[in-house]
Amino acid sequence: MKSYDLIIVGGGIVGTACADYASEQGLRVAIVEPGPIGGGATAAAMGHLVAMDDDPAELALANYSLNLWEAFTDVEQLEYSRCGTLWVAGSEAEFAHIPAKIARLAAVGVHAELIDRKQLYRLEPALCPGLFGGMRVPREAVVYPPAMARHLLQRARARGAELYDTRVTAITNQGVQLADQTQLHGSVIVATGCALPQLLPQLPMRARKGHLVITDRYPNVVRHQLLELGYADSAHGDADSSVAFNVQPRPTGQILIGSSREYSSESPDVSMSMVRRMLERTFHYLPALRQLDAIRIWTGFRPVSADGLPYLGRVPDQSHVWVAAGHEGLGITTSLGSARLVIDQFLGRATAIDPKPYDPARVAA
Prior knowledge:
Layout (H helix, E strand, L loop, with lengths): L1 E8 L3 H12 L4 E4 L7 H4 L4 E2 L6 H14 L15 E5 L2 H5 L1 H10 L5 E3 L1 H7 L9 E5 L3 E2 L2 H14 L3 E3 L3 E4 L3 E4 L4 E8 L5 H4 L5 E13 L7 E4 L2 H6 L4 E9 L4 E9 L9 H14 L8 E12 L5 E4 L6 E5 L5 H16 L14 H4 L1
Parallel strand pairs: 1-2, 1-11, 2-8, 4-13, 11-18
Antiparallel strand pairs: 3-7, 4-6, 5-6, 9-10, 10-11, 12-15, 12-16, 13-14, 14-15, 17-18
């Protein structure tokens, strides 16, 4: 029977971030993942590193994490591209809200700029006529998330972390039981995203399906990560289905197109009706994309907690079990900060930001 300081269940970007930071702190770490490292929700993510200002706790975690991402900008395989984010105002009312957004971002140290109509079209000439301006966040970036998960695991393994490519069937009083009946002893972090209720049914989690489309190579058609200012209504809303304009230039010259959200679909199959709805939203803002060739469409599922904030902390009534899951669409951005928040609590240290908003006890009571 093997013993570890920490057994991490889940090899997505959050789990591997936990393994990386825990091993860096000198802990003896095991990570258990039956599928590909960086699969699941990590592989289906757009890889946008972004601070959203709509919720103070979400903004604090995103900003904390974005600063940690700066240590990885020169890792070649991550395809890190500091393209910046350009939020687009489709109405005068949306444009009027931008100064308040800039102020909220500035309060945590994120620099954003008001972009008038003339500047908007100079920055992104392919946008449709009639837009009112926007907000640019120059330091934001895009990455290739599966490569980051593999990189984090590689770093952890170089420090002695051990990988078990099998499934955890149960959390025991002393650790976990694997599918082959092997018992591992140690404290546990569950970072399994949508699959969280299989091991921790007391923590509600819903799966929210999304579609992505990627085009052939069309360099310089789009220069920034582009989002409509109403994107948060889709991301934070509770509608059964919604779409929002979200387009990203990849370093390869391809254009990645999102986003859709669905609660009612449990099938990973592509829904062409949802894809058409998502693309019509895209073509409304970027008519030129209608002429481009798409080469792949795929789906994934975002893990959504009971209140939209991730569970990051000790699981109530299970002194040796911790959780890091439920990030909805911000798991890539917030992965590094989430790992530090959980591991620092595990080690009994002060945390860089207030951990209370993410305490799983808020929903498990």
